[in-house]
Design brief:
Number of strands: 36
Shape: globular
Strand content: 15-25%
Structural class: alpha+beta
Helix content: 25-40%
Largest sheet: 9 strands, antiparallel
CATH class of one domain: Mainly Beta
CATH architecture of one domain: Distorted Sandwich
Length: 871
């Protein structure tokens, strides 16, 4: 039998356990400093406790970081790239950026790098970085951003002038696997400047420090360095070897803290973590002359003329390795790239344009490079390590004190390996939808992971993110599981059943904890939308009362329908689930009806609003027209007569509700023929046809939500007429802000008051497609509002998809809207085809904003391409 050597063959081998093709990958974060895991301060000041200045000198407790880095799935070893342009005060070992209190719009990376390519098994990967030849302006970036107010734009690296006259190094790192634990590596360095220049290139291998914390049975591993070779030995993985061509010198030190530099105290090693840095920069004797340690680098010094390029060939393999990169190096590189091309050619729809295909492939790359090793034993972190001083006692009652059961030691999809190098529950759900297009096995494993006993709280809450596991994220896990199930072919009932069993606990937590009045409307909190409201919804209200939320209620109605859909799918194969289907059908009707009964729907404005319920029974509607009032559209599904006939108990309950509880009739439509096969069906939705059309009149209005690039999160009508409410003697205001936030709410590092956000756009487009399946082409809406022409809901969903995709693809002038007015990115041949996937987008011009590499949920653009061209 011939072994399948294609990428699909490797995926099948990985899923079956035949070959561990996912065991090595880009699981090394690009920032470990400034994270909660490394914060042992009394008051949770993570940014200050472990700043960037400490990163080169201080051993990390929980994980590691580096540039273009790879590691194994337990992060036993790490490999990454270090560079020096001959002028910087430190080696370029990690991406630099500003902390949350250092930037005028929150934390922000201040460098330019791109994830250009990756297959799901990481058999082929490409990473690109542009490194200034002038001294990197660390102090200038800190100083200028520190001076700017929230009303000014961010000061970026390109604004400093360091890329003028093309004085930069273009550095590309390619990885190709010869086996699951055997990587061929190419580091290609190009001098883009007008003069001959010198650069130091230091491919670096080290072991994560697991031995310095006083834990039991932690032996110190060893790396031995000789010209062109770093040979490591670790009790967990045995031997690991890095070899490079041309026999460059090996520089060795220890992955230990330089306590003398940081605190004036003696350290554990004469050659600590920053020894290679100090040797290369200052020539000090800080590398071990015996050629041994736990961190080593091969030291290449390249002198390249203008436009000259040099590729360094090397190999990283478990076990011993021959001298040099190997006779098969060129063939491995060539074959893995060809197999990657074939994989994406058969995966991405043929009908997509070449530009759309390129964007989709780079979106996959960002998702794959965003997979990170995540290690965090919360109980150990709260108590402190035996080898260190006890942490301040206040930590026992501070951040994450109630989550001592959590013990993470997994590879997890992160929103952004620099800005968000920790998972976020609702981000992860969206990631998995796009990941399922290329690696459904990994997507399913990720969704199940957060529901396991060592993640989900015993009370049923899903952890939000490490800054505050108890924060409340929207309940989108069930929705994502259904999408992944369907993308994977709708046959993995075991997966769906396992997800549903755990989500029953989570749904119960929501009902018990977030419906304080027991009236089927929900309070949720900020629900991931940061500063969308006039005041911080995650904090105490400015007056006594309860905030009944349209988005929280919409999310819960959607959650009930998702669980209904799951139960129906499973009940068609196992009738024991039919009781569950009737339960969630009924629960949805209660929630949807309560939204109207409790006043969330404003009949005059044709919109859903949050309502502040006061102790005396009075209700104050918060009439800011935002995404909060649009999310109820997502609570929509269809029941076909075929399904109801096969599930008599569900059918009977639907009929009973219609005949005996007429108040629920508005959320259960009459039967009608719909869908491609014109089957008889019913629509379950928070909005009927009349409400839908009235909401769409606002949604599709260019003066409100409709932008040339998608849907804004706040109506543009609030530009001229901000919403203000007076509570407790203070005024609280929401105004349209299409770009960065001028508000400090929730840290001020993102903005839901006008920009375009991919995940909520995606959900609304999906809702329109669901309505279209029910109403067909019979129902049309004016599009855009005021244009005096009508379009079907499918046509509208398609056009909204094109608007979102168009932010990433070149327009008729060859310009990508995401890059705004930055000419270097728009026109320069070295920059213009390198695509980033920002966190959110300017509400009027589509320019990218926020975290620059939040490919995670912004990679939903990949799924938009699939849905647009493969329906």
């Amino acid at each position: 039998m011939t072994r399948d050597v294609s990428e699909r063959g490797r995926l099948a081998q990985a899923d079956s356990g035949e070959q561990p093709w996912r065991a090595w990958g880009p699981y090394l974060a690009e920032r470990a400093w400034g994270t909660v895991r490394e914060d042992y301060s009394e008051h949770g000041t993570a940014w200050a406790y472990f700043p960037h200045d400490h990163a080169r000198s201080r051993a990390y407790r929980w994980n590691e970081d580096g540039m273009a880095g790879v590691c194994d799935d337990r992060q036993t070893f790490c490999f990454a790239l270090a560079l020096w342009n001959g002028k910087d005060p430190i080696l370029k070992e990690r991406i630099f950026g500003l902390t949350g209190d250092g930037g005028n719009h929150g934390e922000d990376a201040k460098e330019y790098w791109w994830y250009q390519d990756s297959t799901p098994t990481h058999s082929w990967m490409r990473w690109r970085y542009h490194y200034p030849q002038a001294e990197f302006p660390y102090d200038q970036l800190v100083r200028e951003n520190g001076h700017r107010s929230r009303f000014e734009g961010e000061y970026e690296l390109v604004d400093t002038g360091v890329f003028d006259e093309d004085r930069f190094w273009a550095v590309t790192v390619d990885y190709a696997k010869a086996g699951p634990a055997d990587m061929c590596i190419a580091v290609t360095v190009s001098n883009r400047g007008p003069e001959t220049a010198t650069i130091d290139v230091l491919p670096t291998l080290w072991f994560r420090n697991t031995w310095s914390w006083g834990l039991k049975n932690r032996q110190v591993p060893k790396i031995t360095g000789t010209p062109g070779r770093l040979a490591g030995e670790h009790r967990s993985i045995g031997a690991i070897t890095l070899v490079g061509e041309d026999e460059p010198p090996a520089l060795m030190c220890d992955n230990e803290t330089n306590a003398q530099r940081l605190w004036g105290l003696p350290g554990k090693s004469h050659y600590p973590k920053d020894g290679i840095n100090d040797f290369v920069i200052h020539g000090t004797p800080t590398v071990n002359p015996a050629g041994a340690g736990t961190k080593g680098a091969l030291h290449y010094r390249l002198e390249l003329g203008p436009g000259e390029t040099r590729t360094l060939r090397m190999r990283l393999t478990q076990g011993d390795a021959p001298d040099g990169p190997g006779d098969d190096w060129d063939a491995v590189m060539r074959d893995r790239l060809a197999e990657a091309d074939a994989f994406f050619a058969e995966t991405i729809p043929d009908a997509a344009s070449d530009d759309e295909k390129a964007v989709a492939r780079q979106a996959v790359a960002g998702l794959m490079w965003g997979k990170q090793f995540y290690h965090f034993d919360v109980k150990q972190w709260l108590a402190g390590d035996p080898g260190n001083a006890p942490p301040p006692p206040g930590r026992r009652f501070g951040r994450n004190a109630g989550w001592g059961h959590m013990n993470s030691f997994d590879v997890i999809s992160m929103p952004d390996p620099w800005e968000y190098p920790w998972y976020a529950a609702w981000d992860l759900a969206f990631h998995c939808v796009s990941i399922a297009r290329v690696d459904p096995g990994f997507a399913k494993a990720q969704l199940l992971l957060l529901l396991r006993e060592w993640y989900m709280h015993p009370n049923g809450q899903i952890p939000a993110y490490e800054w505050a596991f108890a924060d409340v994220n929207p309940p989108v896990h069930a929705w994502a599981a259904l999408q992944v199930f369907r993308i994977d072919g709708s046959h993995d009932y075991d997966f769906l059943s396992r997800v549903m069993h755990k989500l029953l606990l989570n749904f119960t937590w929501w009902v018990n904890r977030k419906d304080v009045g027991g009236n089927n409307v929900f309070e949720g909190g900020f629900l991931g939308l940061d500063n969308v409201g006039p005041f911080d919804r995650s904090a105490a209200l400015p007056v006594a009362g309860a905030l009944e939320q349209s988005d929280g209620t919409g999310w819960m109605a959607m959650y009930a329908l998702n669980l209904l859909d799951m139960a129906i799918i499973l009940a068609l194969h196992d009738r024991a689930y039919e009781d569950m289907a009737t339960k969630f059908f009924e629960h949805f009707t209660y929630i949807a009806e309560a939204a109207y009964r409790q006043g969330l729907w404003d009949e005059e404005d044709s919109f859903f609003y949050d309502v502040l319920r006061l102790p005396d029974g009075h209700k104050v509607p918060l009439k800011a027209r935002s995404i909060v009032g649009l999310l109820p559209l997502a609570a929509t599904t269809r029941l076909t007569s075929e399904t109801l006939n096969r599930l008599p108990e569900v059918n009977a309950r639907v009929r009973w509700m219609l005949h005996h509880q007429a108040e629920f009739g508005d959320v259960i439509s009459a039967r009608r023929l719909g869908g491609a096969d014109r089957r008889q069906q019913r629509l379950l939705s928070m909005v009927g046809q009349d409400q839908l059309l009235r909401i769409l009149a606002r949604l599709l209005d260019p003066e409100e939500f409709l932008s040339a690039y998608g849907l804004r999160t706040l109506s543009r009508a609030h530009l001229e007429k901000p919403f203000t409410v007076s509570l407790g003697g203070s005024d609280f205001t929401v105004g349209y802000e299409p770009a960065e936030s001028t508000s400090g709410l929730f840290g001020g590092n993102s903005n839901w008051r006008g920009p375009i956000w991919m995940p909520v756009n995606y959900l609304l487009i999906q809702a329109l497609r669901e309505f279209a399946e029910f109403y067909g082409d019979d129902l049309k809406a004016e599009y855009p509002t005021g244009a005096q022409r009508k379009a079907s809901l499918t046509e509208i969903a398609d056009d909204l998809s094109r608007r979102l995709i168009s932010m990433f693809t070149p327009d008729e002038d060859g310009r990508r809207p995401i890059y705004g007015s930055t000419e270097l990115f728009q026109t320069h041949p070295d920059w213009k085809d390198l695509v980033a996937f920002p966190e959110y987008f300017h509400g009027d011009n589509g320019a990218g904003l926020g975290a620059w590499h939040q490919t995670g949920w912004t990679a939903l653009v990949l799924d938009l391409v699939f849905n647009l061209h493969r329906r």
